[in-house]
UniProtKB/TrEMBL annotation:
Residues 158-338 form the ELMO domain. GO terms for molecular function: GTPase activator activity. This is ELMO domain-containing protein. The lineage of its organism: Eukaryota, Metazoa, Chordata, Craniata, Vertebrata. It comes from Hemibagrus guttatus.
Length: 359
C-alpha cells in the first residue's frame, strides 16, 4: 500500500499533465464541434422550415430604417462570417465607397448564401439600402471630423464670406461697421472678433450656425431674439419699490438669456459627440433612406438648437452659470430618446419635404 501511494504521488504530475493537456483540449474540442454542429443543424432546420437565412429574416421582420439597419450592423459576427468579411472589406475603404462596390458586395452575399435574387428581389434592395446607410454614416463621421479640425482662418475669403453671410442673415437691418466690431455680441459672440469663439469646433460651428440661419431662418431669428431677452421674473417687493433707474440696472444685471452663437457652437459640440459615439445612428437611419449626409447632420443641429431653447426655458435657470447643468440634462434626455429605434429628431421645416423612411 505505501508503495502504491508512492507510485501515485510519483505519477501525479504526469497524470495531471496528461489530464490538463490531453483531456481538456480534447473535451473542449469535442464540445466546440458539438456546439458548432448543433448550431449548424438548428440553422439548417430553421432555414428549411422558414426557407430563409438570418439576413432575410432581419430584412423581412423589421421595418426599414434604424430597426433594420441597426440589426444588420450589429448582428453578432460569429453568426455570419461571410457577411461580416464582405462588409469589413467594403468599409475599409469607406472614404471611397462607390455604389457599385455596395452592389457587388450584395451580389457576393447572395451568391455565397445561395439566395436566388429572382425569387427574393426585395432582399437585395433592402440589404443595399442598409449597407448604404452604414457606409454613409461612416463617411459622414469623417466629413464632420474634418470640418471640426479645420480652424477658422481670417485669410481665407470663403471663411470670411460665410461669417459675413451669417451676420446679414441674422441682422438683416443692421450694417456691420467693421470686421472687428463689438456688434458681433448682438448675435451672441463673446468679443469683437468671432474668430476666437470658433476655436472649439472649427469650421463646423460656422457651417452649422449658417445652415440654421439660412434654412430655418424664422426659427433662428426667434431663438436669437429670445436669447437676447432679459429673463422674465416676477417683481419682488423690494424690486417694486426701487426707482426706475435702479430697477433697470438690476434687471439688466440679472437679464441673462444666453449667447446665441456661443451656445450654437456648444450645441455643435453636442451634436458632434452624438454622431461620433454612434448614438445618432437611430435618427439618421430613420431620416436618410439612402446615405446620411452633411445636410442631415445640419438639420439635426437645427432641431437640437430649437429643442435646447425650449428646454432652457422650461428649466428656467437663474443665470448662465447653470449652463453646464442644463446642458448635461439635455444631453441625457436626447440620448434616452435615441435609444428608441423609431426615434427621429426632425426639425419642423423638414417634416414636409423630407422623405422619411418611417414615422
Ligand atoms: C460646451 O459646454 C460644455 C459644458 O459646459 C463643455 O464641457 C464643452 O467643452 C463646451 N464645448 C465647447 C465647444 O465649447
Amino acid at each position: 500500500m505505501p508503495h502504491f501511494m508512492a507510485l501515485v504521488y510519483f505519477l501525479m504530475p504526469a497524470i495531471f499533465l496528461s489530464m490538463t493537456l490531453g483531456m481538456r483540449v480534447l473535451t473542449q474540442f469535442l464540445l466546440f464541434l458539438y456546439c458548432k454542429c448543433l448550431w449548424r443543424g438548428l440553422k439548417f432546420v430553421f432555414r428549411k422550415v422558414t426557407g430563409r437565412c438570418e439576413l432575410q429574416r432581419i430584412c423581412y421582420n423589421n421595418k426599414p430604417g434604424a430597426r433594420r439597419t441597426l440589426k444588420i450592423e450589429y448582428m453578432p459576427n460569429d453568426r455570419n462570417v461571410i457577411f461580416f468579411t464582405l462588409l469589413h472589406q467594403l468599409l475599409q475603404n469607406a472614404l471611397s465607397v462607390h455604389p457599385d462596390a455596395v452592389e457587388k458586395t450584395i451580389d457576393d452575399i447572395m451568391a455565397l448564401k445561395k439566395i436566388n435574387p429572382d425569387t427574393n428581389p426585395q432582399l437585395a434592395i433592402s440589404l443595399q439600402a442598409s449597407l448604404f446607410q452604414i457606409v454613409g454614416y461612416r463617411n459622414l463621421v469623417l466629413e464632420v471630423e474634418k470640418l471640426r479640425r479645420e480652424p477658422y482662418d481670417c485669410e481665407n475669403p470663403n471663411h470670411e464670406e460665410m461669417l459675413m453671410k451669417l451676420w446679414k442673415t441674422l441682422r438683416p437691418d443692421s450694417v456691420l461697421t467693421g470686421r472687428i466690431s463689438k456688434q458681433w455680441c448682438e448675435i451672441g459672440f463673446q468679443g469683437s472678433d468671432p474668430k476666437t469663439d470658433f476655436r472649439g469646433m472649427g469650421l463646423l460651428g460656422l457651417h452649422n450656425l449658417l445652415y440654421f440661419a439660412e434654412h430655418d431662418k424664422a426659427a433662428a431669428l426667434q431663438v436669437l431674439h429670445d436669447s437676447l431677452q432679459p429673463k422674465h421674473r416676477n417683481m419682488s417687493k423690494e424690486e417694486a419699490s426701487m426707482s426706475k433707474a435702479e430697477w433697470e440696472k438690476q434687471k439688466f444685471d440679472k437679464a441673462i438669456g444666453y449667447s446665441f452663437a456661443i451656445v450654437g457652437i456648444n450645441i455643435t459640440d453636442l451634436a458632434y459627440s452624438l454622431l461620433a459615439s454612434g448614438a445618432l445612428k437611430t435618427h439618421l437611419y430613420n431620416v436618410a433612406p439612402e446615405m446620411p449626409s452633411l445636410m442631415h447632420f445640419q438639420q439635426t443641429f437645427c432641431y437640437l438648437m430649437q429643442d435646447f431653447h425650449r428646454f432652457w426655458i422650461e428649466e428656467d435657470p437663474c443665470d448662465i452659470m447653470e449652463f453646464n447643468r442644463v446642458r448635461n440634462k439635455f444631453h441625457k434626455r436626447i440620448l434616452k430618446q435615441l435609444k428608441n429605434p423609431d426615434m427621429a429628431l426632425c426639425p419642423h421645416f423638414t417634416a414636409s419635404d423630407l422623405h422619411l423612411v418611417n414615422l
